[in-house]
Amino acid sequence: MNTCRKENDIADAVAFAQESFGSLHLLVNNAGIMGAMSSLDETTALDFERTLRVNLLSVFLGTKHAVRCERDGRPFLPPAAWKHQYNSLLRMMMSR
After folding, report:
1. Enclosing H/E stretch for 28
2. Domain count, the chain
3. What is the CA radius of gyration of the chain?
């Protein structure tokens, strides 16, 4: 499924949560892939871009659209709760 890489799908998911529950209370950016498993000189730009889109761009897009809840006057997360936003890329980096 490519949903986490498509900005419109992410925006629609946030809007659905707002409409269904009144606001968005927590965001878990948990999309992540290992990416290309070949050596650097054998990795294609397309494989590398796919990894970046899933592991980085999806986190940015999820956060971007969730933060808009605040701007729209619907609380997203209290400042102290930001530490609870998880994403698999951060966990993967910390586990190395």
Report:
1. none
2. 1
3. 15
